[in-house]
Amino acid sequence: MREINHKGYQIKADAYQDEEGKWVPRAEISPIDGSKNIEESPLVWLSEKFEDRPKAEGFALESAQFYIDTNF
């Protein structure tokens, strides 16, 4: 799992293996100060699968940053 802070939010990027052994990226975004109201569901990219965990986590991290940049 990789964690960073980005523009007032904490991102926890992770990945899990599917039944075929591919790594599926996911990320949880939460406000650092607790004052912002965002959806609590993790972001999961089922259409993006990777051969190894570090690549999947990197994708989740970059995608979550983009999500924050475009939605908050």
TrEMBL record:
The lineage of its organism: Bacteria, Candidatus Nealsoniibacteriota. This is Uncharacterized protein.
